[in-house]
Each structure stands twice: as structure tokens, then as C-alpha cells.
Amino acid sequence: MGTIWFWLVAVMIVIYVLLDGFDLGAGTIHLLVAKTDEERRQVLGSIGPVWDGNEVWLLAAGGTLYFAFPALYASAFSGFYLPLMIVLWLLILRGASIEFRNHIKSAVWDPLWDFLFWASSLLLAVFFGAALGNVVRGVPLDSSGYFFEPLWTNFRLGDDTGILDWYTIQVGVLALLALMMHGGLWVQMKTSGQVNARAGKLAGRAWWGVLTLTALVTAFTFRIQPQVKENFTTWPWGFVFPLVAVAGIAGVVFELRRRDEHKAFLASCAYLTGMLTSVVFGVYPMVLPARNPVYSLTVTTAKAGAYGLKVGLVWWVLGMILAAGYFTIVYRSFAGKTVVDKNLRGY
After folding, report:
1. Is residue 221 part of a domain?
2. Domain annotation covers residue 344
3. What letters, b where the CB count within 10 A reaches 16 and e where it falls short, cover 328-339?
4. 341 within domain boundaries
5. Is residue 287 classed as helix, strand or coil in its secondary structure?
6. Contact assessment for residue 203 and residue 221, using Cβ atoms and an 8 Å cutoff
7. pLDDT tens digit sequence for 38-50
8. Strand runs labelled E in the chain
9. Are 26 and 47 a contacting pair, CB within 8 Å?
10. Distances (CA, A) of 162 to 7, 71, 134, 155
11. What is the DSSP letter of 290?
């Protein structure tokens, strides 16, 4: 039952990255692809109806994590307290910048809201990537299940780890570039005119960085986390996950050249799904690896009671059915290109 919930939490995280990933990505590129107020409203309009709903998946994944793996929740939230507070304030700042821009008409304030939207989106992408890097690399857990890491280190190669160090910052930059590509493809698919052209061009440029860092980070991951190599050696069928990522990253550039905006975006979804599921497969059965493997939290040691997990599974399935229906209706309702009314304020 613990393994089932391990993968269910992973599924929710993947859904969050795919959905909120494109509007985070749109935030990181909107100052680059939109030059005028109308163009920036076009970018905001492409995510406007869905960005807040997409963030619910982060809350849902956190709640599910707390329910299924309370020991992991306790360890992770105590050890990552400072970066989690930073992420929380960045999420608040990002949401406020979107809403204030659309409710306060001011030539003075608009540039500030645009900058805050860009900066908060960029930092969130980096911090989310760095968080994933910490989980893969392992944290200095002690025998009581707690740990502390500084926010950053000297960034030199070695065992001097931090929330941001030589490895996690690479994962953070990879996450940033991947979401820039993902967001660029979304904006291209949802807009027209100059914004459409610039977004597609930027996504193509980000693709090269994603390709390079994917290879580099993969090589370093096999070096610093032996469990990843062991899992892929023991269960070769797991190579299907990185193959999905390879097919996705190849599909992005292929579909961009064919000018198929929808398939290019779907290829980006495949890349992100393949990368995340490769990580999940690679660290299993650990849910939070420790620098000293003896203290690692595993599916078995971190899970909740068997009865609670069985009952929770029923409610989780019902909740997912309702969520799937809701999001299907929402995305169908706002399908097609974004149209900005010049006479109205907002997106």
C-alpha cells in the first residue's frame, strides 16, 4: 500500500508541474516576449482563467503527502522550513502581482507588477528545481529523522551541501529553462501575432539549454546517488521513463520545425513527465534519501497506518474523478487563442 501511495503522490506532483509549470514558465518569459501593455495582457490572458486552479494541485499534493507519509512531511517541513517560507511568499507575491495589475490601472504601477510577476515566477522555478535536487542527492538526516541545511554553500564540488549548492543549483537552472520552454510553447499555442512568434523562438532557444543541462545533470545524478543506478540496473524496464523524456525533448524541436504548436506543447509535457517519473523510479523505495543511507526515510518507515491508507485510497479516487471532470470543463471552456479587448482592463 505504501508503494501505491508513493506513486499516487508522484502522479499529483507531475500533474502540478505540467499545469502550473506552463504558467510559471509564462511568467519567466513575459518580459521577453511581450513589449507593450496589450502584449503583456495577452500573455496574462493565456494563463488568466487557469493559473490559480493549477496551483491547487500543489496544495493537494502536499495534503496527500501529509496523509500518506506523515514522517516524511514532518522531516521535510522542518528541514526545509526557510525555503518553504520563501516559496510561500513568492507564491503570494506572484498571485498579488497578477491581480493588482488587472485591478489597478496605472502607468506607474504596471511596470512594478510586471517585474514582480517575472521575478517571483523565475525564483519559484529555481527553488522548485533545487528542492527536487535536494531530494535526489539526499539530505543530512540524523537518527531522529531531522536535519538542517544552510540556504547556500560555497558551490564547490564536494560534500558541503546546502539548499542551493553546486548540484542543486544546476537542477534549479534546468527546471527554469525547462519551464521557460514549456511556458513558451503554451504562450505560442494560446496567442497570435508578435507574441506568438517571439514565444516560439524563445522556446526553441531554451530547448538547447534544456538538452545540455539534462545530459549534465543526469551524469551528476548517477554519480552522487547510487540508488538511481542500482534501480535502473535491477529493473531495466524502468528505462521506459527516461525514454519518454528523450522522445519528448526530441519531439519539441521536431514539432517546432513543423510549426505544430499543439504537438510541440504535448511533447514538452512528455519530457517533463519522463524526467519526473525517472526521478521517482530512481530513488524508490526512499522517499527522502539521507547522506548516510542508514537514516534514509523509505516507503515502509514513513507511511501511515494500513487502515487509513486503504480508506484514503477510496476518497482519493473519488476526488481525482471530480478534479479531472472540473479541469476538463475549464480547459475546454477556454480553448483556442487568447483575445484581448483593447477597451477593457484586465486579461
Report:
1. yes
2. no
3. eeeeeeeeeebe
4. no
5. strand
6. no
7. 899 999 999 988 9
8. 286-288, 297-298
9. yes
10. 27, 22, 8, 9
11. B
